[in-house]
Write a structure and sequence with these properties.
22% of the residues lie in helices and 21% in strands. The protein has helices at 17-28, 80-85, 102-109, and strands at 3-8, 35-39, 75-79, 98-100, 112-117. Helix 2 (80-85) links the parallel strand 3 (75-79) and strand 4.
Length: 118
C-alpha cells in the first residue's frame, strides 16, 4: 500500500498552516499507519524547540508535535539543506526526525500515493 505524505513548508509564525497540517496528521493517524511527514524550506522551523507562535490563528502548538510518536507516526524526514540554509543544522529538534537530502525527500515523496502540503 502506498503512503500518504504530509509536507510542512511554512514557518510556524504568521499562518495557521502548520497547526492545520498537524491536526490533519493526527486525525489521519487514527485511520492509517502509512503516513510520512516531510519538513522542508521554512517548515523545518516547525521542529525547533522554544517556539511560541502567538498569532490568533495559531497558539502554541509546537509541543503537540510530540504526540506523533503516540500515534505511531514514525517516518519523519527533515531536509538537511533547509536546516543548513537557515543556520539551524545544530539546533535540537523537538521530535525524532531523520535529516536527509532534498534528493532523498523527492524520492520518498514519489512513493506516496497522495501528498498534502501545509
Amino acid at each position: 500500500m502506498k503512503k500518504l505524505g504530509f509536507v510542512f513548508s511554512s514557518a510556524p509564525h504568521g499562518s495557521a498552516a502548520g497547526r492545520e497540517g498537524l491536526d490533519a496528521v493526527l486525525a489521519t493517524s487514527n485511520y492509517s499507519e502509512d503516513l510520512v511527514l516531510f519538513f522542508v524550506g521554512d517548515g523545518v522551523m516547525q521542529l525547533l524547540a522554544g517556539q511560541s507562535p502567538d498569532t490568533v490563528l495559531c497558539r502554541d502548538y509546537i509541543s503537540t508535535f510530540k504526540m506523533l510518536s503516540l500515534c505511531d507516526v514514525e517516518e519523519v524526514y527533515v531536509c538537511a539543506e533547509s536546516l543548513a540554509e537557515r543556520g539551524l543544522s545544530e539546533q535540537p529538534l523537538i521530535i525524532s526526525a531523520e535529516k536527509v537530502s532534498a534528493d532523498e525527500i523527492a524520492t520518498t515523496l514519489g512513493r506516496c500515493s497522495k501528498v498534502l502540503q501545509f
